[in-house]
Request: fold
Amino acid sequence: MSNSSGELLQIETLELQFPFELKKQISCSIQLTNKSDNYVAFKVKTTNPKKYCVRPNTGVVMPHSASDVTVTMQAQKEAPADMQCKDKFLLQSVVASPGATAKDITPEMFNKEEGNHVEDCKLRVVYVPPQQPPSPVQEGSEEGSSPRASVSENGALNTSDFNNISRAYIEQQDSSSETKALISKLTEEKISVIQQNNKFQQELELLRRERNRNRGGIPTIYVLIIGLLGILLGYLLKKT
Reply:
């Protein structure tokens, strides 16, 4: 990409590239380089200020030095059509007094109507695919090993790359199956333990009732014997 080589500030690229992802804040930085002998004040404006946060949006770049500006895009709920963005940024720069700082910047400095020499640089926003994490599959580097996976010039996926992706997918599925089997086994063991515990509780309750029955009151046989003796004694008394 071509550089913007103004008299005051130079920028590496005229595009702000954001690796677009839904519901996620994304930041992009641009470097402002001052190759002159002057103190240069700058100001950054955008056509969509509610969508972006620019830090710093104003500042001073000292002679023969550089300064970074970070542009943060707020989390987006929807992706734009065809991943195209019409948002624009405007970088304005003007010569400042020697030793000037950000506190010395005023809006009047960027007013061209007052005869100030203000340089304008327009930047456009570009959405790019997010970076993919490195593949966990190690690729051989020894002689005779299979060639490194790559994409051909026409965009087709090479056979080795396809095999690596398939192998990683199968390993992931196997790991998921083992996890499900382990969870199922633990669930069955838990149910078995609960059933055994309930059975032990029931047996303990029966033993407790049996013990209380043996301890409480006079046995039935004694009651019957006393009753028979009472009847017999009554009969004898009546007879006499």
